[in-house]
Amino acid sequence: MSQEPPPFHTVIDFSVMTGCPDSTLTAMCNGKRFHVIISGLSLGGAVPGPQSEYFDLLDALEKAENSSHKILEALEDWILERCIPHFKRLAPQIPGDAGAPRTLQQYYRPETFVLSLVNRGNHVEAVRRSSSGSESVQQAEPRLRPSPSTPHMDSSLPRFKASALDILPTHPDSDITADLPRRIRCPDGRQYFFKAVLDPRSFDRELESLLHIERAGLPSQKTRTSRLRGIVEWDEDDTIMGMLLDYIDGGNHTLQTAARGASAACREKWMSQIENIVRQLHQVGIVWGDVKPDNIVIDGDSNAHVVDFGGGCAIGWVDHKLYDTVEGDQQGMQRLRAYLASAQEEHSLTD
Predict the structure, then answer these.
(1) Is residue 197 within 8 Å of residue 143, measured between CB atoms?
(2) How far is it, in rounded angstroms, from Cα 195 to Cα 245?
(3) How far does Cα 343 stand from its chain's mean position?
(4) Contacts of 294 (CB under 8 A, 6+ apart)
């Protein structure tokens, strides 16, 4: 008999503490939220036992450079494997979409279960906590309390309450009970891309950069970048949940996925477009700050769009000493061109 597959779920937040073996993970499954707390002390420490793989992965993560994302994925999988029984029991699939969140407010305020990982001697399992763990759950929510220095405070940006914004599927196979909400619809029918607050400093940087793009008057037809259209607030107060950006039609592919199998002409066209966009940004004093293939979206007309102005350059694309500088962008662009060239060679070998 084949093993029943785990229910579909999405990790919406995963934090590994610096300098200690603790972490937290938040996942959505069938409209329910699971917040998992992992304490190195509760697992029994870095000694031989069923918890050894967790500590080995933490150690590898600390030493990792370019492969850190793969180690994080392995760490997520190790934690999630122990939570699946709770997903099946506490978040059963509902026929149709009766249990699906309809609005952003509903998605980020679901029924929530708090789990902890414990060492049972011969295995590690997830157990449900009797306390709500509300403080740690709230820390995982996308929330920014505005201050006088918050970039949007002196702007005329439209503000939307989260309960007024409907969640739409981004593609036919989307599961809005688990997938992070990306495509939303306003009361007047307009559709936008929703980007939640993940890191306050990164969010502030992106807000300021996008406002700068608008103030500089860069035309969207030539300078294809994210375009800011509004701020989303929680219903109960004026704390910020995220921002609304223009939705890129047909933009379900990043350069990383689109480059596979693309012709040499397409790759050269995209590279030329990206270089032109970044040059225009630099001319008005804007640093992109996060050059990598995942931050370039290819639209339905096969045009490249530069997105994500939150900073935090990926390892391997920009040297640390050049982070958040024009020189860093230029270095990242050189590596991007080399990346496309190497991808073309791989494609040619498989033809």
Answers:
(1) yes
(2) 8
(3) 24
(4) 254, 255, 256, 314
- pTM of the entire predicted model: 0.82
Long-range contacts of 146-154 (CB under 8 A, 24+ apart): 146/238, 146/239, 146/240, 150/204, 150/207, 150/240, 151/204, 151/207, 151/208, 151/211, 152/207, 152/211, 152/231, 152/240
Helix then strand then coil, in percent of the chain rounded to 5, is: 35, 20, 45
Residue 147 has, within 13 A of its CA and on its CB side, a CA count of 5
Which contacts of 301-305 are long-range, i.e. CB under 8 A and separated by 24 or more positions? 301/250, 302/266, 302/269, 303/224, 303/273, 304/224, 304/255, 304/269, 304/270, 304/273, 304/274, 304/277, 305/224, 305/225, 305/226, 305/248, 305/251
How many CB atoms are located within 10 Å of the residue 56 CB? 15
CB 277 within 8 A of CB 306: yes
The rounded distance, in Å, linking the Cα atoms of 129 and 203 is 32
Q: What are the pLDDT digits (tens) for 280-318?
A: 999 999 999 999 999 999 999 999 999 999 987 677 888
Round to whole Å and give the CA distance between 82 and 94: 23
Contact assessment for residue 211 and residue 135, using Cβ atoms and an 8 Å cutoff: no
What's the start-to-end Cα distance of the chain, in Å? 40
pLDDT digits (tens, 9 = 90+) for 30-51: 889 999 999 988 898 767 888 8
